[in-house]
Amino acid sequence: MSRKLLLIILDGVPYANWRRYFGCLEGWVAHGDARIWRMRSSLPSMSGPCYASIHTGVAPQVHGVLSNAHIQRVTLPDVFSQVRAAGGVTGAVTHSWWSEFFNRAPFDPVRDIEYDEPDSASINHGRFHTMSGYDHINQATPSDVDLFATLTSLCHRFGLDYGILHTCTLDSMGHRFGHDCAEMDHACALMDTMLAKFLPAWRAMGYEVIVTADHGQSLRGHHGGTGEDQQDFALYYFGEGEGPARDVLLDQRQLAPTVLSRLGAPVADTMKHPSFLA
Ligand SMILES: [Zn+2]
Hints:
Layout: E1 4-10, H1 15-21, H2 23-30, E2 35-40, H3 47-56, H4 60-63, H5 79-85, E3 90-95, H6 96-102, H7 109-112, E4 114-116, E5 125-129, H8 144-158, E6 162-167, H9 169-177, H10 182-204, E7 207-212, H11 228-231, E8 232-238, E9 249-251, H12 255-263
Helix pairs in contact: 8-10, 9-10
The structure holds zinc ion (ZN).
Zinc ion binds next to helix 3.
């Protein structure tokens, strides 16, 4: 691998919330340490289809995950498989759907809650959570500090070349409270400060870091459909690559080939959209 990279996915954070409430991330942009662009999700702007688009670089109509009711092993090449083909070590600290999409399905909570599989053609080091029991009131999400710490631990212990972290905390807060309320103000600020505690250490370990979302949410806390509120989110990049002009709208299908290009891993033939970093 020519470089190492961590992809941080904060589920369901609309563009406006990134810009208003993530003062630590915005501070790094203002100081010249990070760059920011707007990215637009695939359709439908639902979590499962967007996770699969993030990692395969193709639309839901191609990878086949067309709703959150289609949780299955995705058969197309993805970021994990391409990094493994290049000899890199992969890790994931995410919702269990990522394990089902890219390693094996259905998810067996005892077998799959955590695994270390050095010879895997997909995820070498996985740490997952299912959010079983999630409903409108009980979010059933882990603390994000625990997730950030787990990813950092995997990087130290196993020398990850590529690691992904995904958390549903803010998506669940949005579904519960909407986005024009004190609860969401606080939740975003809390996430920003938790992330800021770990991000400098990842950079010091030599990782490029991308922080972004899978889709946005409307003010009422909905997503799945069209429109800037449901589809658009910010993408922050910490690294030495050159990117497009600030006002270029990025396509979610560009993310997989971008990550692979930065790592020096082969971009799969199925990934037709160009990397936005060089
Ligand atoms: Zn989502």
